[in-house]
Model the fold of this input.
Amino acid sequence: MIQFSDLSLMRGSKMLLQDVNATVYPGHKAGLIGANGCGKSSLFALIRGELHPEQGNFAIPKDWQIVWVAQETPAVDRCALDYVIDGDLKFRQLQARLSVAEEAHNGEQIAVIHGLLEQAGAYDIESRAATILAGLGFANDVMQNPVSAFSGGWRMRLNLAQALLCYSDLLLLDEPTNHLDLDAVIWLEKWLQRYSGTLLLISHDKSFLDSTINEIISVEQQKLVSYTGNYDAYETQRAERLRLQSLQYQKQQDQISHLESFINRFGAKASKAKQAQSRVKQLARMETLLPVMADSHFNFRFLAPPKLPNPLVKIEQVKVGYGEKVILEKLQLNLVPGSRIGLLGKNGAGKSTLIKLLAGENTPLQGLYEASAGLRIGYFAQHQLEFLRADDTPLAHIQRLDPKATEQSLRDFLGGFGFRGDDAMAKVAPMSGGEKARLVLALTVYQKPNLLLLDEPTNHLDLDMRHALNIALQGFEGAMVLVSHDRFLLSSVCDDFYLVDSGQVQAFDGDLDDYKAWILKPEQSANASEKPKVKPERKNTKRLEAEFRQATQGLRKTISQCEKVMAELHSKLEKIEAELSHTDIYSAENKEQLKKIISQQASYKGQLEDVEMQWLDTQEQLELQQTEFEQSLSAE
Done:
């Protein structure tokens, strides 16, 4: 087992861990989580023997074989398959010994080494390596390509393949999904579920953690805190801890009281059952999630765009590609306000090509592509991190977008993305990948887009920032197209999924579980042409839904305003009731004050009754129109 006893660890002058005590038992699969910079990767370096503790002890069985993913990949001419097999040093050493024995015609040594090679799995090592490469997205015809022919992201996949091929007692994986697409993430998840050794996994992918680990080790205030179960279990346990410990949790009580009041008042009314049930779910979710968010450094939202034209983008029979190479054809897509599309498909199928077409980086080779005059695009992709000015600060970047804004307002905005105080004035050059990604997201949000294009936005983001992004996207009013390997994000913010496959883009008939089942079907490798079901296109549905939302916008706004007024009046009435609970208010000298309070109480109650009646009437109008609209859709 791995044991940390009274351990303290520093990097430079920064204390990362202090007086830590923790144990990881053999065969356990533990997820190591915490904010960026808290010491997770440094803890891995300690286990690898690259760092030493400032004090305390660290113990690991001496005979354990420890395997991790190399961070550097030389641009060698060795083919990809051989490069992966090179990762098994024991096999290559036995091969070298066999060559020496054969040259010396030492029959006894040859026999012994062949036995050792068999024990090391030498006779199926090439097929195992090819299977791993295929699972990580490498086509059969590229496995013989030299390593130097691959981009940086693909070379990292080669390093991951090396680690998975080797026998190990302890496997250390630091953000293994960062350079993978969804298909490869699903395959890796299945592989890790079958892994029999001890696993330590650093990841900010909630769904990936949920499916692969049975213990969470969280870095909290320079300590390691263990939680039993997967990430969902960790959230529940930590929420309870923070409920008991955090004073910030008390700030929720006013909102909880308002929700409970709504449920008590309208829960029994048949016409309001749907709204009351919605508040019940909201209350239940808030009581578990908000304590976890209480100490988050990130808090932002998308502001309403100046215009929401309908449609935002119209695409008919478009062909798109690079030069003479066609990637997608017969592309048919209308994006309207409220469209929330997640793109699915194998690596290289054309997801990013479609995103770049919508972003204006690619132009159609053929067909109709119309963008509304009021279109404002917010585009996030990993390559945009390279366009940040290395010598500038976050504040300088955002000041260029809005020179007239006050410095304080821009600082307040950047604070929601974790750039507080001196961080807003720090140079971009030494920033981590996560910090740069947060800055690009901040610049994207500030521009108030009505079409949001997100290509792997969660790479390098920690769990708190991913959660903040998730919440912000749920409130986004425009159209959104998302490519991500983060299934929790996809399932939380997307209403529709489109499959990009074989040069086509079609609506996918199913959810992410259906897509996962398709990816993992055993016969899929033997029948690569088989496709998941796609649902027939209903061209007008999204347009009609957008028109309905626009037509009922006034009703929704009135409901929102009424709810705000009701909350204010409830708050005022609670204060009056608190004043009336004091016995001294009924004394003779406070007679006039009492009359004034009672008069205010009657006035507030009257106002509350009027607003509630307006709220009820408006809700009924909206429900009636919603029912009629749904009936008209089903009749099509």
